[in-house]
Amino acid sequence: MELFLLLELPLLMAMVVFLPQKNSLRKIILLLTSSIHVFATISLWQYPRAVRFNSFLGFDAVSQLVLNCISLLFFVVSIYLIGYLDEKKRRSNRILISCLLGLLASMTLVMMSRHMGLLWIAIASSTLLSVPLVNYYRTPKSIEATWKYLLISSVGIALGLLGTLFLAISATSINTIFLDDILNNAAYLSPSWLKLSVIFLLVGYGTKMGLAPMHTWKPDTYGEAPSPIGALMSGAVTGCAFLAVLRVFQICFYAHLKEFVSPILILLGILSLGIAAVFILGQKDFKRMLGYSSVEHMGMLVLALGLGGGAIWASLFHMVNNTFAKGLIFLVSGNLNQIFRSRKIENIQGVIHRFPITGVCLIVGLLVITGFPPFGIFYSELLILKEALITHQYMVGLFYLLFLSVIFFGYARIILSMALGQPTEGHHQRVKKENFFMVVPLIILLFILFFVGILVPDAFYNLINEAIALLGGK
Hints:
The protein is an all-alpha fold.
C-alpha cells in the first residue's frame, strides 16, 4: 500500500492533471496528493528502518530521513502554490502541476532505489521534470537560465552514468550493482575501477548538488524560477543529489576507501564555501544571492562528510535544517516579489513595518541560514569546526571560519536593510494585506525549524543516529 501511495499515486496524478480541466481542480489534486504522500511517509515509522518492497525498491534509515524532509517540504509548497497561482489565474498551470507531481514521484524513486542504475535513472528524470518548472514564466532570461541548467546538469548526469558504468566494472566479480550486494561484498570490488567510479560519481552528482566549480547553473536558475520552485530545487532536488553522494560515501566506507574519498569531499566543500563567500558579498539580486547560499550549504554538507566522525552527524542534521530553512526563505522571496515586484535588494526595504509576518519570517530565515544561535544550523556548523580541530586539520578549520565570517557579514547587511530599513514607496502600495495561503506555509516552516532544529525530538535524533551508523559516523 505504501508503495502505491508514495510512488505510483503521484505518477498517476501527474497524468490526470495533464488532461483538460480547471486550474483550481489541479491545485486541489496537487494538495491532496502531497497530503497523502506525507501521511504515507509518516506511516513508514511503524516499520523497521530496513524496509524492502522488492530487490529494486526499499528504504533504510538514510533514505527515510531524506524522504521525510522532501515530502514535508513538498506538502508545504503545495499549500503555498494555492495562493501563489491565484496571482497568475490567466496562465494555465497544467504543465507546472503535472511536472511537480512527476517530480515528487521521481524524488521518491531516488529515495527508494536499491540499485545504483535505478538511482541514476531517478536522478536524471528529476532533472528533466525540473526543466519546465524553471521556465514557467517563459521570459528570455528564464529560457537562458533553463538552457544553462539543462546543459550543465546533463553533463553531470552523463558523468554520473560513466561513474555507474565504472562501478559495474569494479563489481564484475559479484556481477551486480544492487546496493545491498555491493555493501555486503565490498571487499570483492576492484579498487582501481572503484576509485575511478567514485571520482565520476562525485563530480556528476556534485553537479546536481551545485557544488563548486560545477555550480554555475544555480544563481541563474534560482533567480529566474518561480519562488516555490526554487524552494523545492534548493531543499528537495538537491537533497536527492546529496542522497546519491551519501550512497557513494557509504560504498567507500564499506570498501575501506574513506581515506581516498575524504580529501575530495573536503576540497569540494571548501571550494564551494569560498565561491559563495566571494559572490554573496556583491549580490544585488535577492534570489541570486540565495543561489550562492545554496552553494555554501551544499559545500558544508560534503565538507562534513569528508571530515568524518562526529561531523557526519552534523552533515545529516544540517541537511534537515537547511531543507526547511531554504524552503522558508524562498517562499518569503515569493511574497516579497508579489509585494514589491522586484528582486533587487535595494528596492525591498522595511518589510517588517508593512507586512509583519513576512518580515519576521525573512529575519528568522536569514538568521537560520547564517547559522545564528540557537537554531540547528549553528550547532551543525559548530560540530563541523570541532571535527576539523579534533582531526588536526587546522587549515581546513581556518578557511571554514574565514568563509563563514565573510558570508555572515554579507547577510547581516541584507537583514538590516530589507527587514528593518525605512519602507520604500512604490509597488507594495498595491498589496493591502498578506495572502493567507502564502503566509500559513511560512508559519508551518518556522514551527518545523523550531521543532527539529532546537527541540530535536528523540525519534528524529534516533533516526539520524541510525543513518550515520550506516555511513561510519559517530
